[in-house]
Amino acid sequence: MTIEINATIRKAQGTGASRRLRNTGRVPGVVYGVGDVSLIDIDHNEIYYKLRNESFHASILSLNLDGKKEQVLLRDFVMHPFRQQVQHIDFQRVDANKKMHIKVPLHFLNADIAPGVKVGGGKISHVMNELDITCLPKNLPAFIEVDLSKLELGHSVHVSDLKLPNGVEVASHGTHAAEAVVATVQVPRGMLEAEVAAEAEAAAAASAAAAPAPAAGAAKAGAAAPAAKK
Questions:
Q1: Which pLDDT tens digit goes with each residue over 82-93?
Q2: Can you tell me the distance from the alpha carbon of 187 to that of 194, in angstroms, rounded to the nearest whole number?
Q3: Which of 24, 33, 55, 103 could be stapled to 93 by a disulfide with Cβ–Cβ 3.0 to 4.6 Å?
Q4: Which of 105, 30, 37, 35 has the alpha carbon at shortest distance from 75?
Q5: What's the confidence (pLDDT) of residue 230?
C-alpha cells in the first residue's frame, strides 16, 4: 500500500516565514530532483506520525501537491533540539528508469533458535540496523531479512550472507563491503569471566603439580638438625 502525503506550495521564504509557518502547525519543506525545486509545507501532525512509521523512511511515497501527485522519497528531516516538533523536511522525486541509492531497515529473524543463543547461551549483537542498497524504484524493498537460525557462538553474519531481493544490490563502500559484519553472537560477560577464572585455576594447579620435589639429602639434613641440638 502506497503511503500518501498531502502538501501545498509555499511562496514565503526565509527564516521568519518558516517560523511563522511552524507557529500555525505547518512544516516547511522542499521537493527536488527531476524538474524544478518546489517549496512546500505540510501539516505537522500528519508528517510527525508518519515519520514514526519505519516503512515511511524506505518506501516510494505519493506526494499530493495541490492536487497533483508525484512519487518521492524521504531524504532528510530536522527535529527541534528538545521538542517533539518537525522543523523541516526534504523529499526527492523518483525517476522510474534510474537506479536510486537508499538505506533500508534490516529485520532480524530466528534469534531465539540460533545455536549460539539456544545452546551456547550467547547474546545477539546487531552491528548494522540498515543496509545501503541501489535499485530501480520498482524493486525497492520495505526491508531486508537477516536469518540468524544457524548462527553459532562467536560467529557472525556478513553482508555477503544476506539474500537480497531481485534487482537489489549492496551499495559498494570499498573492496571489503561484502564482508562487513551485520550481526554476531557474543559470549556473555559472566560466562567469559568464569571461563577465564577456570583457566587460571587449572594453570595454577598444573604449575603446582609440575614443581620439583625437595632432594632426599636436604630432607634428611632438615630432619637431623633438631637432634644435633640435643
A1: 999 999 999 999
A2: 11
A3: 33
A4: 30
A5: 44
Q: What is the mean pLDDT of residues 189-201?
A: 55
Q: What is the pTM of this model?
A: 0.74
**DSSP letters along 170-208, please?**
EPP-STTGGG-EEEEEEPPHHHHHHHHHHHHHHHHHHHH
Q: Would you state the torsion angle of the CA atoms of residues 148, 154, 158, 161, taken in this order, to the nearest 10 degrees?
A: -50
Instruction: Give the N- to C-terminal CA distance of the chain in Å, as an integer.
Output: 105
E strands present in 38-141: 38-43, 61-65, 68-79, 86-93, 100-109, 123-126, 130-135
CA distance 120 to 59: 38
All three cell numbers of 230, joined, read 640435643
- 33 phi-psi bin (left φ>0, alpha ψ -120 to 50, beta other): left
Q: What's the mean pLDDT when you consider all of the chain?
A: 86
Residue of 73, 94, 104 lying closest to 3 (CA atoms):
73
